[in-house]
Amino acid sequence: MDRQEYLNQISASNKPANTKTNGKFGNILSSKILWIVVGAVVLFIILAVLGSVISGSKSGVKEKLYSFDMHMDNSMDVFDKYRNKVKSSTLRSYYTTLSSLIVNVSGDLDSYMAEKYTGKNNTAKKVLGEKKIDQLNLEKDALENELFEAKINGNLDRVFEYKMTYEIATFMNEESDIANSTNDSDLVEILVNSYYSLENLHNQMSGFSESK
User: Fold this and answer.
1) H-assigned helices in 60-184
2) How many CA atoms lie within 13 A of 177 on its CB side?
3) Fold topology of 60-211
4) Where are the domains positioned within the chain?
5) Over the stretch 103-156, which tens digit does the pLDDT of each residue have?
6) Taking the CA of residue 180 as centre, how many other CA atoms within 13 Å lie in the half-sphere pointing to its CB?
7) What pTM, to 2 d.p., does this model score?
């Protein structure tokens, strides 16, 4: 066997196996039809998910409104029981401001809901259901227990300030959530005006807390 034949044998033995299969597989991957199908499936999934999210958020506006309205009423009922027991005049002044803001937004929302959702089935119990109402009432009871224990332990002012600041932030979050879930400009205006008023009070209370 001469040198050239020997080199040819080595070259033949080092050729990759399944060349035909690999070629076919590569052709499939590069196929325009495959990529079009994959792209269509991905686009369908994205649109389905977005549609579900948008549909869910829009349909939940009514429930969110009733829940927010009840949450405000419950929280303010509890704060009102203890406001006269708070020693700090500044803190009592903050509460008076908060109470006024909540009366305004609650009244605006009540009028909006009365006009938007008419009929005997549009009560909080019908809209939210017993489970959600029980949850909101449990949160109210928890707030009242915290303030009651704080009064017994002699640190009502500190806990009252903390819980009021927390509730203001929670109100703002709920307003933002509802505003982002609706295209109704009248409702958005009510919520945005209230949000900025609450934000201003929240900033004042944060400054008061830091200065102590």
Assistant:
1) 61-82, 89-116, 124-153, 156-179
2) 16
3) Ferritin (1.20.1260)
4) 60-211
5) 999 999 999 999 998 776 788 888 999 999 999 999 999 999 999 999 999 999
6) 8
7) 0.70
